Amino acid sequence: MKEFQSFFKTVKGNEGNKCHYPTRLDTYGCGCQHDCKYCYAKSLLDFRKLWNASEPSVVNIQKVHRTIRRNLKEGDIVRLGGMTDCFQPLERHHRATFHTIEELNKQNIGYLIVTKSDMVADDDYMALMRKDLAHIQITVTCTDDSFCRLYEKATPPTKRIAAIEKLQSAGFDVQLRLSPYIPQFIEKGVLDMGIINNVQCDKILVEFLRVNTWIRKWFNIDYSDYTFNQSGYIHMPLELKIKYLSLIKGFKELTVCEDVSEHYDYWQRKVNPNRDDCCNLRKNMSF
Fold first, then answer.
1. For the whole prediction, is pTM greater than 0.85?
2. Rounded to an integer, what distance in angstroms lies between the CA atom of residue 192 and that of residue 168?
3. Whole-angstrom Cα distance, residue 39 to residue 209?
4. Is 193 helix (H, G, I), strand (E, B) or coil?
5. What is the maximum alpha-carbon separation in the chain?
């Protein structure tokens, strides 16, 4: 297993300018065992021959600890898993994410976990994570366990939903991340909005699918509604996004993560509860 060296980065440009938490720390890299067909990271790395889903690289944990101490300070929030999932199956053996969280706890640095795994709700991780530092987003893209295996190798969505509810019940700052939100799955009957709207979680974050040449090649859906072009991706127009967003009900807080500048401005003004933070994290630092 080769070492992953380029694990720490602050994203700039169009994405970095919109994101309130642009600094990421990837405990695994150059591939992800979940290997989602719609993954923008895969689309950026695969054509450069830097994507190996069967054998991703693992970070050197001692280098991670030194990087945290040198580059982050008390009160910062770093994103764990920007280009790969920090709770992909490799984690059960290497525990790189576990030991990274240990160091972040010591330094009083917050961490935003984005994952398609229920491992984050295992008892040992829940005992490790500090509620004043941990922010957890668990991604769900459909509600059909069998169908999801056609385009991603992640934990079945029923288990992800159970993990969300377990973390919510325990008092963690947790969100259901409907990302990407693919309305075409509603038409197929594999994304049941009744199930989504009944998840016992206070918060939901929505991010609509964005599509480039590689994603369109790998991910087979009807793209006739994707007519808006920006920054090398095609998107649904804002009016369609608003229509499909209206199907989401019952959550105390709904927020939208967006790549398109004009759409981003609309969500900021009309939807997002926190204009400056589209992740809408709960800040309850107590150190």
1. yes
2. 21
3. 10
4. helix
5. 51
